[in-house]
Each structure stands twice: as structure tokens, then as C-alpha cells.
Write a structure and sequence with these properties.
The complex is a heterodimer of chains A (about 160) and B (about 190). Chain A has about 160 residues and is of the alpha+beta class. Chain A has helices at about 15-25, 30-35, 100-110, 120-145, 150-155, and strands spanning about 45-60, 70-85, 90-95. In chain A, strands 1-2-3 form a three-stranded antiparallel β-sheet. Classes of the chains: A alpha+beta (about 160), B alpha/beta (about 190).
Amino acid sequence: MADAPPATEPPSPPVAERRRWMGILARASAAEIEQHLADIPAPPPHRRLRGPETGLVMVRGRAGGDGAAFNLGEMTVTRCAVRLEDGRVGHAYVAGRDARQAELAALVDALLLDDAARPAISEAVIEPLAAAQQDRRAAEARRAAATRVQFFTMTQMR
Amino acid sequence: MDTRFPGFADPVLDAQACFRAVLEAMSRPGRIQPITPPPEIPPGLSPAAAAVLLTLVDAATPLRLAAGDDAASWVRFHCGCALVAGAAPFVLDPAARLLDLDPGTEEEPERGATLILEVTSLQDAPGWTLSGPGIRDTHRLRVEGAPAGFLPDWTTNRARFPRGVDVILCAGTRIAALPRTVRIEEA
């Protein structure tokens, strides 16, 4: 939106940084987020502004990077927006139907908007989740690598 | 774009109940209907008007709104509607004049705008005398705080049937509706 936020709001973090932690939270399960939330002081009470509510979003694709956009299919998404008492608003859009995950992700997003508290929360919640996701990806990549077919080898065998 | 204010406590059931109240109000012109407002109201809107907006406005219905920035960001957040300055199917603007709004066309009179009008109070007491479809004989309604020149404008609005503008009056947590068919006389 084009209108500037009111002067009372804290300056928002860089978009790329927020996008990164929102992505990590969206890929983490409710149990994982809850487990890491236990490591930081209990979050202040929050109020639901919207949701958590489940709906469908259309996923669009583009063939070859320059083809016409097409509708790939619909995906189930749960979204939530919460407000802390000091007015910070956190958002979450997560795949699937886990309302608890969406609410926790929105809550952590709101907590991370506080510049002073961000390093501690990031250290306790975001980084462990990111490391676990990185490990899972690496393990999967290793499993997949074992089944890799080297096409050039078959060409040479002919 | 963020707002500090939540929407309906129960988005589905509260919106359905409010829709029912608007339906009752439209089908029984001038009858006052209570509505359940959202738990917190952004400044600039009455509870009734806030509930009506949450119920009727969505991404497919642009809104002309003049109730302050808080109300604008709240409506945009919860309804996902476009806010426009010109012709719109829903209008909540104290400066809007009845006859300036889109009355629809002879072929598509359903495209006529709906004006959501904030008034000071609505009472089932002598004031206006309403008659027309949906009213057996006559019905009385006292409206305080209607804009100046509303009744002459209404006579003109009614004369261009089937085109015309419908009005939802909001005061506190009560609404009453004036569909374009209703005849209003000052008692």
C-alpha cells in the first residue's frame, strides 16, 4: 500500500529479513515452534485480528521463465493475524490446515518486529528452526543423490 | 495496511446474523433491527455501520468511504475491498448526496448504489411516516441527524424507479433500511 505508516509505529525491519523468518516459521510445525518458544520469556498476551482461517489460494506457474502464466492448481493455506498489546501486528500464511501453527507463526512474527528483542528471539527460535530445516533438506538431497542416473555414462557405453 | 482492530468475534455466524438483520430491515422498511457489532470499532464508524461494512463489502464491491484513516485501513484489511473516490456500489460518506450516487440503469437497476448513512438516533416514534411495499398501512420512524434536504432528495430518488439508491440508516447498534420503493412523508 502506498500510504506511509503512522509515526508512532516502530520502523519495520528490512523486507528480506522478515520474508526469511516468515518462510522459516511457515515451514516449521506447531510443535517445533512451541518447543523453541519455551526457551524465551513467555510472550505477552495477544489478540486475534483475523483467523486463523483456512482457504484456498491459486498457485500460478510460468513455463520456461518467459511463457504465459498459467494456473498450476489450488493449495490449502491457513492464515492468521495477531496483535500484541503494544500494537505490533504479526502475520502468517502457512500451507495446510494447522490453525495452531498459523497462530504461533503470527505471534512469533509480531515478537520479531521489536528491534530490541529481535536478536534474542531470532537466536532462540528462528536459527534452530532454520538449522533443522537445512538438515532435513540436506538429508533428503543425500537420499536423492544415491539414485541419480548419470546420462552421459550411458551415452558413452553405447 | 495493518489495522489495530479485529473483525467479527465469530466471522461466519456474526456476518450471517448481520446479513439477516439487513435483509429483515430491507424487507420491512423502517423497522429497526438490532445487530451484533464486532468487539472493537475503529474510530469514525458506528458499531452498526462497522458490522454492515464487514457483512456486505468484499473484494468484488468497491467502497467509497469517508470515515478517517483508521476506518479505511480496517475495512481494507478485513474486507479486502478497493476504496474509491467516485461511483461505488457501497457508499459511506457523510458528504455524499443521494442524487449524486449511481442509480443503476433501466436494464440493470440492481447496480444502484447502497448508501450507508450514519444518523444520531433511530426510534420507533412519530417523525417520518413510511408507506409502500413491505408496509401494510403506514409505519412511523423518527430519524435524528439525517442530512439537510434528505426528504426532497428522497422523493426524487423514488420517482426514478426502478433506478435508485437504497439507504441503510445506522445509529449505535441499530439499523433501519429505506429501499428505493418506500414513500416518506413528514408527519
